[in-house]
Amino acid sequence: RKPARRGLPPHMHKERIIYGDGSCIHNGSENATAETEIWEDSENGIQESKRITGNPLGIQREELGGAILAMLRVPKNNELTYMTD
């Protein structure tokens, strides 16, 4: 017999809305600099920016980097909605 699969109790489930944005100066060139930032509206929420390294740097990579960073920061038992431009 397989154990029953039940969802988390309501008091343990939390919906998190994380906003993100990536930026890149000199997009695609050798001297490009890039950063991704994520934040949450709540008072004690996530607020983090991270400089991206490696080549090639580009705006698409930074936008995806924000989504990945949000997934790494939000606990697995929370529902994540990621908002970006």
> What does the oligomeric state look like here?
single chain
Which runs of at least 5 residues are low in confidence (pLDDT < 50)? none
Average residue pLDDT: 86
Shape: elongated
Largest sheet: 4 strands, mixed
- Report helical residue fraction: 10-25%
Number of domains: 1
Order of helices and strands: EEEHE
For the biggest β-sheet, the strand order reads 3-2-1-4
Number of strands: 4
Count of runs of 4 or more consecutive helical residues: 1
Backbone structural class: alpha+beta
Radius of gyration: 17 Å
N-to-C CA distance: 47 Å
The fraction of residues in strands falls at: 35-45%
InterPro entries: RNaseH_sf (IPR036397)
GO molecular function, one term: nucleic acid binding
State the gist of this model.
This protein has 85 residues and is of the alpha+beta class. The chain is built from 1 helix and 4 strands.
How is the secondary structure organized here?
Elements: E1 14-25, E2 33-40, E3 47-52, H1 59-73, E4 78-84
Parallel strand pairs: 1-4
Antiparallel strand pairs: 1-2, 2-3
Describe the structure.
The chain is an alpha+beta fold. It has one domain (21-84). The protein is built from one helix and four strands; from the N terminus they run E-E-E-H-E. It has one helix spanning 59-73, and strands at residues 14-25, 33-40, 47-52, 78-84. Strands 3-2-1-4 form a four-stranded mixed β-sheet, with helices on one face. Strand 2 (33-40) and strand 3 (47-52) form a beta hairpin. The chain is elongated, with a radius of gyration of 17 Å. The mean pLDDT is 86.
